[in-house]
């Protein structure tokens, strides 16, 4: 594959991505996919999906897991509802994430990713140990499928994430780096974070955002690529620096406005194409 193939984040029936047709219309070569609902993750649908990928000339590079009941309404709600951290849903969601990895395998995809949730900062706490353990279970399941597991960034600082990955101690655990999330969650300057965790970065999102007035307490604002505080040229230059040559997957989480979403992603494709010509 060429260096830095452009991609978009897509959805079939769950998640905030664009439809496959949008990826086709924009002429990008790769996609990431938000896992479809449980009821539609069948072998038959996997075949159908693969046929559409071939028809549209798209390569699937990563499947993202997500769960019923997750809400990104505000930061405390994320803490309470997202990923494998909340204890009440952990067992069920861990099984579901394993099923998602198996579905990704049917799609021939060797990378799966998720928002793990807010990993507790106190590494001596019981909860931290539990989250380590469940991540090991997932890593081992993915290994059986020949897959890597990528943690979406945002909810942890770069140092916290480094510590966590080292504590999990599995060699198929990596990072899906989302620079905007660092800003939106207020967990650190994204370029500096990217340099710190660069060796674990195996997939990325191209998304932009503006810092909140009180970072970490309230959301920053997600904005069209190039209009936020990430600085896309510096971002790509830093991806060069860390030796990342994988897909540049555009994410714009305004699924409630599909026309605007498509137009803004189209603009993002043009911006990244220009920057690639300059830097790749
Ligand atoms: Mg993201």
List keywords for this structure.
globular; two-stranded antiparallel ribbon; binds magnesium ion; 280 residues; eight-stranded parallel barrel; TIM Barrel; alpha/beta; 10 helices
Question: Mind sketching the topology for me?
Answer:
Layout: E1 6-11, H1 20-26, E2 30-34, H2 43-56, E3 59-64, H3 75-81, H4 87-106, E4 111-114, H5 126-144, E5 148-152, H6 158-168, E6 173-177, H7 179-184, H8 190-197, E7 201-206, E8 208-210, E9 221-223, H9 232-241, E10 248-250, H10 258-279
Parallel strand pairs: 1-2, 1-10, 2-3, 3-4, 4-5, 5-6, 6-7, 7-10
Antiparallel strand pairs: 8-9
CATH architecture: Alpha-Beta Barrel
CATH superfamily: Divalent-metal-dependent TIM barrel enzymes
**Cα-to-Cα separation, first versus last residue:** 14 Å
Named once each, the bound ligands are:
magnesium ion
Q: So how many helices?
A: 10
Computed over alpha carbons, the radius of gyration is: 17 Å
CATH class: Alpha Beta
**Secondary structure tally: strands:** 10
Please tell me what the overall shape is: globular
Structural class: alpha/beta
Descriptive overview:
The chain is α/β, with parallel strands linked by helices and 280 residues long. It has a single domain (6-279), classed as Divalent-metal-dependent TIM barrel enzymes (TIM Barrel, Alpha-Beta Barrel). The protein contains 10 helices and 10 strands. The protein has helices spanning 20-26, 43-56, 75-81, 87-106, 126-144, 158-168, 179-184, 190-197, 232-241, 258-279; strands spanning 6-11, 30-34, 59-64, 111-114, 148-152, 173-177, 201-206, 208-210, 221-223, 248-250. Magnesium ion binds at residues 152, 178, 181, 205, 207, 251.
């Amino acid at each position: 594959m060429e260096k830095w193939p452009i991609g978009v984040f897509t959805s079939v029936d769950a998640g905030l991505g664009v439809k496959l047709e949008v990826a086709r219309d924009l002429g990008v070569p790769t996609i990431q996919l938000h896992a479809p609902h449980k009821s539609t993750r069948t072998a038959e649908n996997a075949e159908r999906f693969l046929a559409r990928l071939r028809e549209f000339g798209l390569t699937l590079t990563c499947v993202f897991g997500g769960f019923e009941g997750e809400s990104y309404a505000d930061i405390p709600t994320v803490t309470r509802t997202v990923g494998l951290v909340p204890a009440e849903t952990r067992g069920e969601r861990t099984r579901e994430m394993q099923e998602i990895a198996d579905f990704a395998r049917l799609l021939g995809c060797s990378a799966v990713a998720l928002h793990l949730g807010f990993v507790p900062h106190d590494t001596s706490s019981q909860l931290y140990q539990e989250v380590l353990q469940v991540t090991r279970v997932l890593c081992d399941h993915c290994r059986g499928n020949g897959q890597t597991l990528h943690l979406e960034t945002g909810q942890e600082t770069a140092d916290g994430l480094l510590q966590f990955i080292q504590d999990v101690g599995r060699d198929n655990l990596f990072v899906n780096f989302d620079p905007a999330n660092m800003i939106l969650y207020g967990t650190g300057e994204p370029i500096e974070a990217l340099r710190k965790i660069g060796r674990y970065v195996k997939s990325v999102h191209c998304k932009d955002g503006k810092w909140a007035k009180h970072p970490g307490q309230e959301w920053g604002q997600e904005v069209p690529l190039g209009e936020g505080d990430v600085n896309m040229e510096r971002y790509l230059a830093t991806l060069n620096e860390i030796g990342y040559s994988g897909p540049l997957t555009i994410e714009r989480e305004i699924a409630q406005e599909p026309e605007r979403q498509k137009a803004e992603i189209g603009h993002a494709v043009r911006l990244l194409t220009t920057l690639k010509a300059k830097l790749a």
